[in-house]
Amino acid sequence: MTKTLLDKLWDLHIVADLGEGWSLLHIDRHLLHDLSGTAGLFALAQRGLAVANPELAFATPDHVVSTVPGRTGTTFEAGAKLWAGLKELSQKTGIRYFELGELGQGIVHVMAPELGITLPGVSLVCGDSHTCTNGGLGALAFGIGSSELTHALATQTLRQRKPKAMRVRFEGRLGNGIAPKDVILHLIGKIGASAGTGYAIEYAGEAIRAMTVEGRMTICNLSIELGSKIGFVAPDETTFKYVQGRRFAPKGDAFERALSHWHTLQAHNEAQYDRDEVIRAEKIAPTITWGTSPEHSIAIDEVVPDPSAITDLAGRKAWQEALEYMALTPGRPLAGTKVDWVFVGSCTNSRLTDLRDAAAIARGRRVVDGVNAWVVPGSEKVKREAEAEGLDAIFKSAGFEWREPGCSMCVAANGERVPPGARCVSTSNRNFVGRQGPGARTHLASPAMAVAAAVTGAITDVRRL
Amino acid sequence: MLPFTEMTGSAASLLRANIDTDVIIRIERLTSVPREQLGRYAFEALRYRADGSENPDFVLNHPIFRSASILIAGANFGCGSSREGAVWALMAAGLRCVIAESFGDIFYNNCFQNGLLPITLSASSVRHLADQTGQGAPMTVDLVRCAIVTAQNETIPFEIDAARRQALIEGLDDISRTLRQKPKVVAWQSEDRTRRPWIWQLPAA
Ligand code: SF4
Question: Counting C-beta atoms within 10 Å of the first and last residue's C-beta, which end of chain B has fewer, N or C?
Fold first, then answer.
């Protein structure tokens, strides 16, 4: 059988074949956060249903809690009820809950892999579209809506239709200082924000093999920005080393058994894909977005594109509107554009490796006056490890705010927003209109590029620093 | 869930590509506004100006299209965040059907859990339909026959997954259907405990 990795991951979880490509899939791991998780547990209680397998679910607040130092669950008042609700409903239903200040708290997609909750080959869901992040370890991970969330809690299964299989190979080596974020923004710019719709994407090739698990998670994180709710990387030695010893990862004999199973999670050499793309890794430059869709990405040394170059009328209008919203002029370089805010954080780029990349640029430099620059670690564990390495001190002495773990300014659901009209270089994943706050102008980039903007006051090619 | 068989209403067109669920409903609204009242917040960033007044250029603010029940949208409609509130907001705004060249995957799924019908048509058919929305001429969407009938009596067929179509027509809820399969799930799990013990052996809380 010449199975793709998608075929293997899918087949592993089929409880029943529902016909016409539909399966009843077992869900091995379920992550719950304070927004969709609280609502899902509440909806379940309202219907008088029980949680089928509470031992397979893990909850923590991240979206609607403040990230200000010294925060509690009620610091952001509008989120207090959701925070308290998640805690109460989790405890009532026997779901493990990680409270603020405890190891385990953090952005769900940051905490789950680092605790060993996410494992190669598991099926994992969360009421959150960036659940695909967990695919970085070779998990079948995807975001679900509220109804599906209730379904997963009540039955430990989901009715899913198998997507088509796409493979993207990054061949060759990345240039010096090129981050995983550049790689994925480059890809989205090249194939478009809806290229992945209806597909599960397997990322492969030399550049992926050479990447850390954290980097692979950054790549998988933006799968949904390609339109694909599932993205993954086949697990390998790098993955197994990453997993071993983590809190909820199998130990001893169980680990050995798991390991021999994980070794089978590879596509067959002759597997056929519905779509196959090859990208040359050495051609990728630091990449940043200019518009209001992640597909509006360019290399830092390119100029802002001109809508009149597009023949399709609707497409041209979209570009014009994006440029207007972003207050940019076509034909000019993006480099040199003044910035007001810098945000290093989110489930895309808030892991320890990201903070190290950011600190390497921040070290010995100063955030320019008038620029507000935040670093928001992705989890309590990341925060403690970064502090143990002294990264917080580097950020603070460079003039960054060092905050508590959470989603923060990525989505502004906790009231932490970029003000209207302000321009922000952000390491998050969405530059949508109003995403970081009404009227906020977002440029997506890597941690190093974000820090480069903070210390120069303008969008800057980090290679020139 | 609201069943969907056939409906007739006016259609509004909003052909911009990549309208994401953040634009359809801001996340803050979902923390504070009950589901049925989300309608006025649908497309908030497009619908209102900075001072809070209505933007007269936005199609759903136009007197003819205020009560539209069909939306003809650009490609990749509903991309982005998984929030099901996007579907609730559209439905609370009176919409029952969205027609587009393509949809965000999770949004597309969410539609079927709530009785909103997403129809995928070719780019040229979408544009053709959009051209006919002019004076709020009514269109009929017939899920039983899988066809759209325009005011000019032109019939445009569409395709949709058979299982999803049936569930929509009957207003069937997935959870109740799956709960009936519980014995199968339990049996699968007990085999899995031997097959993949590491999935189940978690340290005690
Ligand atoms: S960090 Fe941003 S993208 Fe990630 S889960 Fe939180 S809100 Fe969503």
Answer: C
CATH class of A5-262: alpha beta
User: In this complex, is the C-beta atom of A263 within 8 Å of any C-beta atom belonging to chain B?
Assistant: no
Q: pLDDT tens, A378-422?
A: 999 999 999 999 999 999 999 999 999 999 999 999 999 999 999
Whether CATH 3.30.499.10 fits A288-464:
yes
Q: How far, in Å, CA of A42 to CA of A89, rounded? A: 7
Q: What is the ipTM of this complex?
A: 0.93
Strands (E), A290-393: 297-299, 341-344, 372-375
Share of chain A above pLDDT 90, in %: 95
Tens digits of per-residue pLDDT, B16-28?
999 999 999 998 8
Closest CA to A237 of A214, A210, A268, A217: A210
Choosing from A223, A410, A431 the residue with most ligand 1 atoms within 8 A of its CB, the one to mutate for a pocket test is A410
pTM: 0.91
Q: What are phi and psi of B157, to 5 degrees?
A: -75, 155
Q: Pocket around ligand 1: residues whose beta carbon is below 6 Å from it? A: A 62-63, 107, 109, 128, 130, 346-347, 407, 410-411, 428-429
Yes or no, beta carbons of A198 and B106 under 8 Å apart: no
Cβ separation A193–B76 shorter than 8 A: yes
> How far, in Å, is the centroid of ligand 1 from the Cα of B12?
32
Find which of A65, A77, A95, A197 to mutate to test the B interface (most B CBs within 10 Å of its CB): A197
**Confidence band, pLDDT 50/70/90 cuts, at residue B205:** low
Instruction: Parse chain A into domains and list their residue ranges.
Output: 5-262, 288-464
pLDDT at residue A433 tops 90: yes
Where are the extended beta strands (E) located within A287-387? 287-289, 297-299, 341-344, 372-375
* Pairwise CB contact (< 8 Å): B199 & A122: yes
Q: Domains along chain B?
A: 6-173 (3.20.19.10)
Residues 348-407 of A with CB under 8 A from B: none
End-to-end CA distance of chain B: 37
d(C-alpha B186, C-alpha B192), whole Å: 10
pLDDT digits (tens, 9 = 90+) for B54-80: 999 999 999 999 999 999 999 999 999
Per-residue confidence (pLDDT) for residue B82, from 0 to 100? 87
Determine which of A9, A11, A13, A15 to mutate to test the interface with B (most B C-beta atoms within 10 Å).
Answer: A15
Residue A306 Cα to ligand 1 middle (Å)? 31
